[in-house]
Amino acid sequence: MADPNVNSQKIVAPVQHKGRRGFLPIETNTFDRVFISVIIWIGVSLLWMRFLEWAIPLWVSTVLCFVLAVIIIRKG
Predict the structure, then answer these.
(1) DSSP secondary structure of 9-63
(2) pTM here?
(3) Owning domain of residue 41
(4) Is 7 within a domain?
(5) Of 2, 19, 26, 71, which is least packed with CB atoms within 10 Å of its CB?
(6) CA atoms within 13 A on the CB side of 36
(7) How many domains does the chain have?
(8) CB 72 within 8 A of CB 65
(9) 28 has which bridge partners?
(10) Does some domain include residue 5?
(11) Cα four-point dihedral sign 21, 22, 28, 31
(12) What confidence tens digit (pLDDT) does each residue in 11-30 have?
């Protein structure tokens, strides 16, 4: 039988999160970072077509968004 004078608190291990923290202000996993990159890519492309395509071709936006996506996925 257990001694009633002994403190019976359980020791709980810290919770391990599957995500990680990078420069993004939230914990993310790989899918989250890819999703964020795609949404940014779409937004930048739409804004580029609206305001800059007359002066700078769309492929420049695609290259910039690709580089940004790689940075976000690797370090975000």
Answers:
(1) PPP-PPPPPSSB-SSSSS-B-HHHHHHHHHHHHHHHHHHHHHHTTTTS-HHHHHH
(2) 0.71
(3) 30-75
(4) no
(5) 2
(6) 20
(7) 1
(8) no
(9) 20
(10) no
(11) negative
(12) 766 666 666 778 888 888 99
